[in-house]
Amino acid sequence: MIEPVRPILIEDIENARSRIAGTVLRTPLVKLDLEPGAPEVWLKLENLQPTNAYKIRGAANAVARLSDEERARGVWTISAGNAGQGVAYAARQFGIPSTVVAIETAPQTKLDRMRALGATIVPVSYQDAWKAAESHEFPGLEGTFIHPFDNHDFIAGHGTMGLEILEDLPQVRTVIGAIGGGGLITGVGSAIKARDPDVKVLGAEPETAAPYAYSLRAGGPQWFPDWQASFVDGAGGKSVTDRMWQRMRAVTDGSITVTLEQTREAMRLIAEKSRTIAEGAGALSLAAALTGQAGEGPIVCVVSGGNIDLAKFAELVTR
Q1: Looking only at Cα atoms, what is the longest distance across the chain?
Q2: Measured between alpha carbons, how far is 237 from 179 in angstroms, rounded to an integer?
Q3: Quick one: pLDDT at residue 244?
Q4: Residues with Cβ < 8 Å from 242, sequence gap 6 or more?
């Protein structure tokens, strides 16, 4: 049975922080050196996590919150790569088996890393993966399901990032995070709004897959017309589900849509300035900040992940 949607309380997030402290890094917040006249931008480098993506925060909390009986059955999730790595990493810590229903077009580096962490991979089409995400089930899998975004404990784990941002940069005015399923922005937004409601929380989506911006214009959750696959594989879903719409609307102030060219340029800039690698989804937030639509700052851009094939990364940033 799917549990009802309920608000992510600050107590949920604080408890999650204690629970995952031994697994998750407190990632650095680094000021970006930009040209005069540019907004003041800081990067929250979640690409430095043990799995090189923020999803480990939610996964570690969700697996830790399971009962012994639930863990004994093994766990499974749905993923384009980062959630799968997070769940597999947390499952390995508890010595339990994990399975990932993986989108077959996921980068090879993500598939290889999930297998290296002990996960069994079940490759499926994007369409079938999204159906499973909406229905919370997949034929033939009987373990304990950990949803990669529509899961209270998963989202509360992501909220720990929001606490760190406010502690490290109390004067922050805007926080931007990529939107795929909506778990990142809901978690961070829940923490930010509980502690400082005046801070704006904005999503960032690629023009080829921007269902939240489209849904905001329509006034309710929508499927995105003319969805296209791109190198931004870790964000940009086909739709906003009813449940995630309820969650995101309460703690966000809008979404900025960026082009793929702006995203590529943000990937290059992050590499040049911070000497770290951001995958497409990880660079969406900086691309959004550089449009000027988020104001002058201080702006914190969540660099959500860095899992991309190196050859593909080099091709994109040197094009």
Answers
A1: 57
A2: 8
A3: 96
A4: 221
Using one digit for the tens of pLDDT, what is the confidence trace for 220-279?
999 999 999 999 988 988 999 999 999 999 999 999 999 999 999 999 999 999 999 999
- Domains in the chain with CATH codes: 10-53+152-318 (3.40.50.1100), 56-145 (3.40.50.1100)
What's the pLDDT at 88?
A: 96
* Residue 156: Cβ within 10 Å count: 31
CA neighbor of 113 nearest in space, from 43, 30, 56, 193: 56
Token pair recorded at residue 183 = 């778990």
Order of strands across the sheet that contains 299-303: 29-31, 41-45, 299-303, 174-178, 200-206, 255-258
At 48, the amino acid letter reads L
Q: Does the pTM exceed 0.90?
A: yes
